[in-house]
Design brief:
Shape: flat
Mean pLDDT: 88
Number of helices: 5
Order of helices and strands: HHHHH
Radius of gyration: 18 Å
Helix content: over 70%
Distance between the termini: 48 Å
Low-confidence stretches: none
Largest sheet: none
Strand content: under 5%
């Protein structure tokens, strides 16, 4: 076997990927958490690179909107990957991460449209609206 992928490392992944249900008994999608974890890692690299480029002046200032899009997507994919992959031991903990996943979706939906808004006041209004929807989602 490849020196980084051994049978021992695969055996450690079985409990993580082999579970078929959540703590509350709901069916668990097999690879959604894996896909979202890969996206989280990719977006973390992209957003850190973009932030560094903005701070160093390598990108024009208008790119901060694209950076906000990356961070919004990063938060959504992170909460979703934890919700789907982590072996939650209690229904309460599972519910908290499910709420985080739902709130993250609100910002993931807001992010792509915010990247194209030039007016700071309109961008802020859209962000505040996304925050209000996220708060309402959290309260449900």
């Amino acid at each position: 076997p490849h020196k980084f992928v051994t049978m021992d490392s695969m055996d450690r992944c079985v409990p993580l990927l082999g579970r078929t249900s959540y703590a509350n008994g709901w069916a668990r999608p097999r690879l959604r958490g894996v896909l979202h974890a890969v996206m989280t890692a990719s977006l973390a690299v992209a957003s850190l690179s973009g932030c560094a480029a903005l701070l160093l002046g390598l990108l024009p200032p208008g790119w901060w909107r694209f950076e906000a899009l990356l961070v919004a997507k990063l938060g959504s994919y992170f909460s979703s990957s934890v919700f789907h992959l982590y072996p939650h031991r209690s229904v309460k903990n599972l519910g908290a991460w499910m709420k985080a996943d739902m709130v993250g979706i609100c910002f993931a939906v807001w992010g792509p449209t915010s990247a194209f808004v030039d007016d700071v006041r309109l961008w802020l209004a859209q962000f505040l609206l996304a925050c209000a929807v996220a708060f309402a989602t959290y309260r449900l």
